[in-house]
Amino acid sequence: MGGEGLPLAIEDLEVRSTDGRVLLSVPRLELPAGGTLGIRGPSGAGKSTLLFALAGLQDRMTGRIRWGDTDLGALRSGPRTAFRALHVGIVFQDFLLFEELGPLANASLAAMYRPRAERPGIRDRARRLLRRFGVDEDGRTVPTLSGGERQRVAVARAMSGDAAILLADEPTANLDRDTGERLLADLLARVRENGTTLVAVSHDDRLLARMDRVVKIVDGQMVSAHA
Ligand SMILES: Nc1ncnc2c1ncn2[C@@H]1O[C@H](COP(=O)(O)OP(=O)(O)OP(=O)(O)O)[C@@H](O)[C@H]1O
């Protein structure tokens, strides 16, 4: 895997709550393959909602989210899951690590969903990333990890599969300045090297300053977009 990213094209996207309220509306947004997009905005604005939609994890949505030739909105849940397993690495805001597994097993999770031939490469990358991020993997499970360590495992997991699309929800939020800087540098180096398309939600100005483009979301609406 690895290699080229996928271009993103959103048209008339609306995500609703269970009671029919519009949580997010994005009339149009485009990002070329290998582009990097930052999303900022106040708490509760709809940033994570957008990231979930981009991952094909939103059921109550209308409109189009195209990654290359694939329109996520037109896919049923099975093919959407398959698309995500193959093409998307995600750093969730609350990490969603498997508590009973160790750092390496968590960081290698993409291996479970990929062809057998790719699995050793994914495990090797996961191991290297954890070492690089300073997470000691020996005999540890998630409950023994600090918040910052969990975040680094989550980032390693999203990166180890070398997916064409990387979605990250506040990937540096729990890290001190130096650790955050190192992780960000590694993440961006890999993204640029592989031509990965990156969408990152963040309040971190250092991260946002390094994106090709930043959009702001307020009250579920995209209020500014500059190149
Ligand atoms: N499934 C849902 N049903 C109802 N409301 C929801 C649902 N998911 C999210 N919301 C609401 O949608 C709004 C946007 O939430 P979202 O998590 O996208 O915000 P955010 O911008 O990521 O915030 P933060 O920076 O605090 O993480 C919030 O008001 C939230 O309560």
Q: Can you walk me through this structure?
A:
The protein is of the alpha/beta class and 227 residues long. It has a single domain (8-226), classed as Rossmann fold (3-Layer(aba) Sandwich). The chain has seven helices and ten strands. The protein has helices at 47-54, 77-87, 103-107, 119-132, 147-160, 177-194, 205-209; strands at residues 8-16, 22-31, 36-40, 61-67, 70-71, 88-91, 165-169, 197-201, 213-218, 221-226. The strands form two sheets. It has a six-stranded mixed β-sheet with strand order 6-7-8-3-9-10, sandwiched between helices. It has a four-stranded antiparallel β-sheet with strand order 2-1-4-5, covered by helices on one side. Helix 4 runs antiparallel to helix 5. The protein is globular and about 45 Å long. The two termini are 29 Å apart. Adenosine-5'-triphosphate is lined by residues 17-18, 23, 41, 43-49, 93.
SSE blueprint:
Elements: E1 8-16, E2 22-31, E3 36-40, H1 47-54, E4 61-67, E5 70-71, H2 77-87, E6 88-91, H3 103-107, H4 119-132, H5 147-160, E7 165-169, H6 177-194, E8 197-201, H7 205-209, E9 213-218, E10 221-226
Bound molecules: adenosine-5'-triphosphate (ATP).
Residues 17-18, 23, 41, 43-49, 93 line the site of adenosine-5'-triphosphate.
Short descriptors:
single chain, 4-stranded antiparallel β-sheet, 227 residues, binds adenosine-5'-triphosphate, 6-stranded mixed β-sheet, 7 helices, alpha/beta, Rossmann fold
